Amino acid sequence: MVIIDKQSKKPFYEQVVLGIKEEILQGLLVPGEKIPSVREMASQLMMNPNTISKAYKSLEEQGVITTVQGRGTFVKELVVSRGDEEKIAKIKGKMLDLVIEARYLNVELPEMITWLSEIADDLGGTKNES
Amino acid sequence: MVIIDKQSKKPFYEQVVLGIKEEILQGLLVPGEKIPSVREMASQLMMNPNTISKAYKSLEEQGVITTVQGRGTFVKELVVSRGDEEKIAKIKGKMLDLVIEARYLNVELPEMITWLSEIADDLGGTKNES
Amino acid sequence: MVIIDKQSKKPFYEQVVLGIKEEILQGLLVPGEKIPSVREMASQLMMNPNTISKAYKSLEEQGVITTVQGRGTFVKELVVSRGDEEKIAKIKGKMLDLVIEARYLNVELPEMITWLSEIADDLGGTKNES
Amino acid sequence: MVIIDKQSKKPFYEQVVLGIKEEILQGLLVPGEKIPSVREMASQLMMNPNTISKAYKSLEEQGVITTVQGRGTFVKELVVSRGDEEKIAKIKGKMLDLVIEARYLNVELPEMITWLSEIADDLGGTKNES
DNA sequence: GTGGTCTAGACCACG
DNA sequence: GTGGTCTAGACCACG
Questions:
Q1: Closest CA to A36 of A81, A77, A73
Q2: Which long-range contacts (CB under 8 A, 24 or more apart) does A27-34 make?
Q3: Which site among D9, D13, D48, D50 would you substitute to test the B interface, given the most B Cβ atoms closer than 10 Å to its Cβ?
Q4: What was the pLDDT predicted at C128?
Q5: Whose C-alpha in B92, D1, D36, D45 is 20 to 30 A from the C-alpha of A78?
Q6: Please, which pLDDT band fits residue C36 given cuts at 50, 70 and 90?
């Protein structure tokens, strides 16, 4: 169940997108599985259906889910193909920003590596076999 | 010299803030050193002085630089004191988001650790001696 | 309702900041309560929205209010944690300045203590129960 | 000897004005005493003579010192006559601002009264007899 | 409708 | 010349 932080600066729809991706990586959602309809999800999370719709559209564009008219929305096979070097560069850039901010909070490299490992554990190991 | 990506989603003033913090961590700017005036920086980066002013204000609030009475703006002594656990938690959260996105680009943990190390090198190691 | 003294040397946005803090301490604004939008406040006080925005930003950085995704701005739970000795020292310094000026207006210590008490009363006593 | 904090936000000339008033209240400077010339003071404090000049002008307008052409600058008799209710109201207003800020740093009334007493002691008691 | 960002341009105090 | 404040007005993302 995706959790929305209403206090967060991150837009709701982005939180939904990331939350679903996280559940897939964790194996809580498996390929082929049906996810709640826009309206169901909206009422579950107490949010505006438009917001959920926006999130689902984004996930569909990213190839993470697929919508079948009148049937529902389903998790797609997780195929990740290395390739978009531009997107990877962006992530690296964001990582640099995080490291800069962390330094100013007196957090050093070894600790950040520990964080990474913990996060990777949370997501179910390097290889995610469901 | 701070570089601004006019295409980036990140606000200009935040890019300036991060850019200056980066230069300090790299030792390119040292405590006591004068940084360009608001107007100079604005013309260098082809931006409005108000935008630079906003960045400098933010840096001052964060204790990174200090402004002296019509004389200019200076880099402060770098004192980082562990403490703000709330901010640290936020960074951890952003790290999780990055890892999720990275996974979908087929980037795994070992590679991200390598990135971290490279970034840390770029910033001059754990202890930054100028 | 915050009152702005257009004659004052104190910047408008600082007056707004202090005015809102005062209303919170007085219990006129309670945690969770929505405060007027930037535009509303601007038109109420006959000021430019940018000025109000600056005040709200400052209050948010100070942890006094919080902004929620296009929904508005809300008063945060009032948590004051002793700690920033540097800021406390600054206030002490300002108090010294006030005492010096007061002396030159023939106002002595007992009278200033009376003022303090009156002010504290106005703010609802030591413990402010809403 | 007046001390100037070059880091302070308070204008240099105001620091000089307050510093001299403080020394008079403390009895370190007594009526009739000659204070250093603008140039002397400027070199002592390592400041621009224009800044000292501005401070002396302000003190003269306030009736604190008097300048005799070719003779020098002297401390005047300390006559404080209650009267300017407007100025007193301003000080009260600033006191309110200080109390608000103090509250947000978890400093309560009794502590502020202690501060006041300490400050009054530093200035040589309620009645300053030299 | 909400706040966030940015530009343009003006005026000000300080040194 | 320096930064600080303010207005006016524009455009944007989010919900």
A1: A73
A2: A27/A124, A27/A128, A27/A129, A27/A130, A29/A75, A30/A75, A30/A130, A31/A75, A31/A76, A31/A77, A31/A78, A31/A130, A32/A74, A32/A75, A32/A77, A33/A74, A33/A75, A34/A72, A34/A73, A34/A74
A3: D9
A4: 43
A5: B92
A6: very high
What is the model's pLDDT at position A36?
94
pLDDT digits (tens, 9 = 90+) for B61-71: 888 999 887 77
| Residue C55 · residue C64 · CB < 8 Å | no
Q: Are D41 and D12 in contact (CB under 8 A)?
A: no
Residue D72 corresponds to which tokens in the numbers above? 């020098």
Shortest distance between the Cα of C44 and any Cα of chain A, in A, equals: 27
Give the ranges where chain B is alpha helix by DSSP (H). 12-26, 38-44, 49-61, 85-103, 109-122
Q: Each residue of A27-38: pLDDT tens digit?
A: 999 999 999 999
* Separation of alpha carbons B52 and B57, rounded Å: 9
| Interface membership of D50 toward B (CB under 8 Å) | no
pTM score of the predicted model? 0.85
d(CA B61, CA B65): 8
Cα–Cα distance, B115 to B111 (Å, whole number):
6
Instruction: Report the nucleotide nearest the CA of residue B67, measured to C1'.
Output: F3
Q: What is the reported pLDDT for C47?
A: 95
Residue B97, C-beta contacts closer than 8 angstroms, at least 6 positions apart: A18
Tell me if C116 and D104 make a contact (CB, 8 A cut-off). Answer: no
